[in-house]
Amino acid sequence: DAGVIQSPRHEVTEMGQEVTLRCKPISGHDYLFWYRQTMMRGLELLIYFNNNVPIDDSGMPEDRFSAKMPNASFSTLKIQPSEPRDSAVYFCASSSPSHYNEQFFGPGTRLTVL
Amino acid sequence: AQKITQTQPGMFVQEKEAVTLDCTYDTSDPSYGLFWYKQPSSGEMIFLIYQGSYDQQNATEGRYSLNFQKARKSANLVISASQLGDSAMYFCAMRARGGSQGNLIFGKGTKLSVKP
Questions:
Q1: What are the pLDDT digits (tens) for A19-48?
Q2: Cβ contacts of A70 within 8 Å, gap of 6 or more
Q3: What local confidence, expressed as pLDDT, does residue B87 receive?
Q4: B31 contacts: CB under 8 Å, gap ≥ 6
Q5: Cβ distance of B104 and A91 shorter than 8 Å
Q6: Contacts of residue B44 in chain A, CB cutoff 8 Å?
Q7: Which of A23, A56, B17, B31, by CA, is between 20 and 30 Å from A33?
Q8: Cβ of B16 under 8 Å from any chain A Cβ?
Q9: Using omega within 30 degrees of 0 as the cis cutoff, is the peptide bond preceding A107 cis?
Q10: B56 Cβ partners below 8 Å, 6+ apart?
């Protein structure tokens, strides 16, 4: 079975540009999480969805960040405009009631904002 | 406030020996879950083991076991018979508000290096 799929794997952009990160959760999983990992702050949750509905977005740093989940198999995290401090690895993870205690992580997207 | 603390930034262990990675947590929720994830240099996050706050026995998964001491609020990971492939970052995490998926709160991690 395919795991969580994220694209792109690497993204380099210039400050001020719009960045869109994509995630395809594992089929049948009804929870989807977006995390950000930096050296300074470690791993932190940005937002999570249940059945395509955002449940907790308190971790979204500011209005420049937005996330959507238009259907059960796709989610996006958008940064507009991007800033150098947004440089990080962004992980998407998904989980299901049958694997309640495990979040399956994608490979991550390494974002560099110049 | 909910918090996870990993006090060991780095650890060394000789191949085939056991190693304990420390994790303490803080929460006022009576129901919570504790997790350990491994992150090798390739970057992916790999789930290792889970312990629920009401579980009577310590969790075990192969060479991994979780030494859960509820009164001390500690959830140390024990890796037996270390292998070179165990070299990685290890993250302890907690999910409070048990019963819902909620979010995971991660510690800063411990970098484990296994020496041949």
A1: 999 999 999 999 999 999 999 999 999 999
A2: A52
A3: 98
A4: B52, B53, B54, B96, B97, B98, B99
A5: no
A6: 105-108
A7: B31
A8: no
A9: no
A10: none
